[in-house]
Amino acid sequence: MMFNTPALVAEIAALSDAYEKALGENDLSALDAFFYDGAETVRYGVGENLYGAEEIAAFRRARSGGSPPRRVLRRAITTWEETSAVVSLEFQREGSSRIGRQMQTWVLTEQGWKIIAAHVSLMAERPETSSPAA
């Protein structure tokens, strides 16, 4: 089994960067295109569980203003063979001390690389970052 071939890691990194750009711009068409268009696709969000590309697209369209602005703190990419990859990243939303996490499983389809599973979560406030009690 081949892991992390440099060319494939670079290709997935470019896709991850493009996803982040689309997310920041709330480019719904681009965001839809990143996900595999099928009932098999799953996205667990901070406050929602979505099954299938249609539910994911409907969620994005119902959310006013799109995703809160964020910056990526750290990213790890793992690829195996030439058909699968996982992108794991930590992010921080503007104005928040909480750390967010996102994992995406990418698969190579006839339509190109697509996200088949995603999970987004926010970590609890750490005691050293929360405000003192009044």
Layout of strands and helices, then pairs:
Elements: H1 6-25, H2 28-34, E1 42-44, E2 49-51, H3 53-62, E3 70-80, E4 84-93, E5 99-109, E6 112-122
Parallel strand pairs: 1-6
Antiparallel strand pairs: 1-2, 3-4, 4-5, 5-6
Low-pLDDT sequence parts: none
Silhouette = globular
What's the number of extended β-strand segments?
A: 6
- Beta strand %: 35-45%
Provide the residue-averaged pLDDT: 93
Straight-line N-to-C gap? 56 Å
The whole-angstrom Rg is 16 Å
SS-based structural class?
Answer: alpha+beta
**What portion of residues is helical?**
25-40%
What is the multimeric organization of the chains shown? single chain
Tell me the number of helical segments per DSSP (H or I, 4 or more residues long). Answer: 3
Q: Main β-sheet: number of strands, strand sense, barrel status?
A: 6 strands, mixed
Helix and strand string, N-terminal first?
Answer: HHEEHEEEE
Q: Report strand order across the widest sheet.
A: 2-1-6-5-4-3
Textual characterization of the structure:
- This protein has 134 residues and is an alpha+beta fold.
- 28% of the residues lie in helices and 37% in strands.
- The protein has helices at residues 6-25, 28-34, 53-62, and strands spanning 42-44, 49-51, 70-80, 84-93, 99-109, 112-122.
- A hairpin with a 5-residue loop joins strand 4 and strand 5 (99-109).
- The termini are far apart.
- The model has no long low-confidence stretch (mean pLDDT 93).
